Amino acid sequence: MNNTVEKDKVVSLDYTLKLDDGRVIDSSEGKEPLQYLHGHGTLIPGLEKELTGMEVGQEKSVVVSPADGYGEIVDADDIVLSVNDFPPDLTPIAGMGVYLESPTGQVKPFFITKVEGDRVYMNENHPLAGQTLHFDVQVVGVRDATPEEIAHGHTH
What we know:
five-stranded antiparallel beta sheet, four-stranded antiparallel beta sheet, 2 helices, Chitinase A, domain 3, mainly beta
């Protein structure tokens, strides 16, 4: 069995994500490892590229530039909606991603930047846009993906 991270492999990964200031913003510590289908765009491009070729048990520190992460910050005005524009079972909070349909029918992701009273402010910038990302990763498992996983583009 091939234990190397490559396209069409399901990879289990322990990780810690930090920003330039050293602040930890996400980690698998105390949780199940992150599991993803390699080579299908599930991870940000800069991280996926650096994981390619690693083997089970290997550890690595990876620095991902904004261009290879969540992108540079797009200068655009916030869209403002009312809290009442959201489904009743959804409470908008800063950082949350939502999909909005334009008048032309195009669906695009937007991220909530703040909520003030009944007004919800959002724009196209992911909360980590413009940030250099620092990952400490360890590959803890690699297996062949099933034909169904490959067809669907994600793990089952």
